[in-house]
Amino acid sequence: MRKLALAGLIAVSLTGCSGQEETEVLNLYNWSEYMPQEVLDRFEEETGIQVVYTTYDSNEAMYARLKLLEEGGEYDLAVPSTYYVNKMRKEGLLAEIDHSKLEGFDNLDPELVDQEFDEDNAYSVPYLWGTTGLAYDAADLDGENVTAWADLWNDKYQGKVMLTNDMREVFHIGLRVLGYSGNSTSPEEIEQAYEKLAELMPAVRTFNSDAPRMPYLEGETDIGMIWNGEAVMGKEDMPSLEYVYPEEGTIVWLDSFVIPKNANNADAAHQFISFVMQPEISALISEEIGYATPNLAARELLPEAVAGDRSSYPTAEDLTNAEFQKDVGDDAMQVYTRYWERLKSGR
Amino acid sequence: MHRVLQQPFKTAVLLLVWGWLLLLVLTPNLLVVGASLMTRDAGSFLALPLNLDSYRRLLDPLYLEVFLHSLYMAGVTTVFCLLIGYPFAWALSRIGKQRQTLLIFLLIVPFWTNSLVRTYALKLLLATNGLINNALMGLGLIDEPLQLLYTEGAVIIGLVYLLLPFMILPLYSVFEDLRRELLMASHDLGAGKLATFMHVIVPLTLPGVLAGVMLVLLPAMGLFFVADILGGSRNLLVGNVIKNQFLDARDWPFGAAASILLTVAMAVLLFAHRLSRRRLGDEEPAT
Asked: Using a CB-CB distance cutoff of 8 angstroms, which residues of chain A are in contact with residue B105?
C-alpha cells in the first residue's frame, strides 16, 4: 500500500487551469527573442485581441510543427526565413495574404519586396532582416586576429567557440571557408564542408539558437557565430562583445510574416501585420532588438545611434561577399540534414 | 488476498485497467512500430511501402556509436545513482517512522517542479559565472573558473539529479521488506558484518537494485533536454537523435525505429529482472 501511495504522490503534478474567456485571440508563432513585449502589449491594448505568443529556435522546428498541425489551425501567424517561405508556399501550407486588408505595405524597402522566393508577396510580408556574422569577446581575446570565418579554426580558441543551432547557417560558413556558395546544392561540396566543420567540432563548446548572445555573456564562449540583433542586444549588457563582418562574407537573411493555410483568425493576423508595419512600431522593434527593419519610413524615425550602427544596418562595404540565404530544394536539404546529424553526433 | 472483493467491482476495475493499457500503451506503441516500418515522406511524414530501411540505418556505425556512448553516459549515471541511492535507502529504512515520512516527502517535493525548470536551475549553478565557480573562486580554491557547463560531466550531473529518486524508491521498498530476523540469524550463525552484507543483504535487495537500474538506465538515454541544456545541444543521448528526427529532420520512420531500439533494450532488462526474481525464489503467485 505504501508503494501505491508513493506512486500516487509522484503522479501528482501541477496542472494549470485557465479560465475560458470570450476574447478574440491571435496565435503568434515567432523566433525566440524576436519581438519586444511592448509591441504585443500595445497591440492588445489597441485592438483588444489577445496575443498568444509561442516561440521556436529553428526554421526546421517551426516547419515541422506547422506541418504536423496543418489541419488544426493552431497558429495564425509565423515568421519563417525566406527559404522556408518558398518551401511552405510551394507545399500549399500558406494562405494568401489579402493585400487589401494591409496598411503600410508601401513603406517597405522595394529591394526586399517582390523577391524570387515569393513574387508579389502573395504569401509573405517582410518583418525584419539581418546578418549572421562573427562575435568575439574583446575582454578575453585580441580582436585583431578575428576577421574571417576561418579564424574560428585557430587552435587558440579550443573549447571557446559557439555556433548557432542552425543547420543552414553552420554549413554556410563551412562552404564559404572552402570558397563555395553558402547556398550550394552540390552533395560533394556539402560533404567537404562537413569534413571542414568536423575539424572544428572539438573546439565547439555549444550550439545556441535560443539566444545566441547568452553563451558570450555568461562567459562560456569567447568567439563564434551570432545574429546581428543578438550582438546589438548583447553589447548593451557586455560592451566588450564585438560584431565582425567576416571576410568570406556574412550570411544575409530575411524573415517574413506568413499566415498558415488553416489559421483560425486570419483577420487578426492581417491586423497584426498592419500594426507592425506602422513606422513607429517598426522603429521601436528595430531599436529594441537590433535587427534591421525593411520599413523605410521607420528608418527615418530611428535615432542616429541606431540607424548608424553598422551592426544593425551594414554598409555596402560590410556586405562584400555577403550571400542571401536561398531555398536549396528538398534533395539538397536531405543531404544537409544527413551531415548535420553526423556533425552533431561527432565528438 | 482480497477474496472479499465483490465481483462487479473487480470486473469494472479490470476493464478500466485493460482499457487504459490498450488505449494508451498498446495503441501508441503499435503506431510507433508501424511508423518505423514505413518510408520517409517530405509531404506527409509517412508513406508506403513498408520496409526495414530505418532499422538498417540504425546499424550505421555513427548511430551505433551514439547508442553506445549514450549507454555509457546512462551507465555512469546509474552507477552514481546506485552509489548514492543504496546507502540512502538503507538509512531511510532504519530511521523512525515520522522522520521517514518527512524524508520521503522531501524526496518527492522536487517532482512538483517541472524537470525542465530544474535543469535550467542546474545550469545557473554550473555556469562559468555560476554559483559553484563563484564559491570556489571566493574560497580561493581556483583562480580560473572551471568549465563545468556544456560538458558530458554536466549532463551526467543533471541526469543523476533528475533520476536519483527513481533509484531510491524501489531500494527503499526492498529495505523495508528486509526482515531483521534474517540479519540476526546470519549473525547467530557466525557471519561477520561483511559476510552478512554480501550473502544476505545484497541478494535480498537485488530485485530493488534491478528495479532501480531499470528506472534510471533507460530514461537516462532518453532525456534529450538535459543534453540540450547542459551539454550544448549535441547528440549525446539516443533521445537527442530521436527528437531531431521528429522535430528537425522530419524522418519519422527513423525516429520511430530508434525509439523501438530503446523499447527493446527496456524489454531485455525487464526480462533479466524477472529472471533474477525467479532465481531468488521471489516470484509472486499469479493472481
From this structure: 9
